[in-house]
Amino acid sequence: MDNDIAQYDTAQSDTAQEWDERYRSRDQLFSGNPNGVLVAEAADLPPGQALDVGCGEGGDALWLARRGWQVTAVDVSEVALRRAAAAGADVAGRVSWTRADLGVTPPPAGAFDLVTLQYFPLLRSAGLPALRGLVDAVAPGGTLLFTTHALADLTEHTEATAEFDPADYYWADDIAALLDAEGDRTWKIQVNETRPRTAPAPPGTHHHRDTVLRARRTA
Questions:
Q1: What is the mean pLDDT of residues 178-190?
Q2: Sign of the CA dihedral 178, 179, 182, 183?
Q3: I need a surface site. Which of 60, 165, 201, 216 has the fewest CB within 10 A?
């Protein structure tokens, strides 16, 4: 393995292999552009330490790094991380490409000024400690940014095949409830809404709206 890709525990090896195969199926799986919600919500944040969860081919991590952030970019797919590292030669010193399953190995607590999860599936089977670990990774004064496809868009096109069960995943309201349970002195929820996508839905999909949660840790 290349020295510029760190590796931690990836116990869910089947998941890693599945994603490696998916990335290998195409020369480029995603556009390479940063996600529109990240651009809209993080453009006004002062650069610091960022954790990009499920970074894929690196579009978000590279956008952050080129704006002065020091980024820990995590994914289970080594194929995706190699592509991302190759695309980010100009900011090699600002991004740590890390192969890990954060449901198995949580990030360090209180270490990041921004924790961003863009369309990252948070499975309930990983348990509340996995979600708790991502929330706890936000430093005091830092921001948690969680974006997913609008639930209505997802269920509308999967009910017939029963391939998707919303109950299998954590959603923005679940995370907001977790933050609220800590009390107003710990978190301030700045955004929790469903909005139109900033870019057209990928071909073959029906993702026309995003659900966005942005919260600031106050203590």
A1: 86
A2: negative
A3: 165
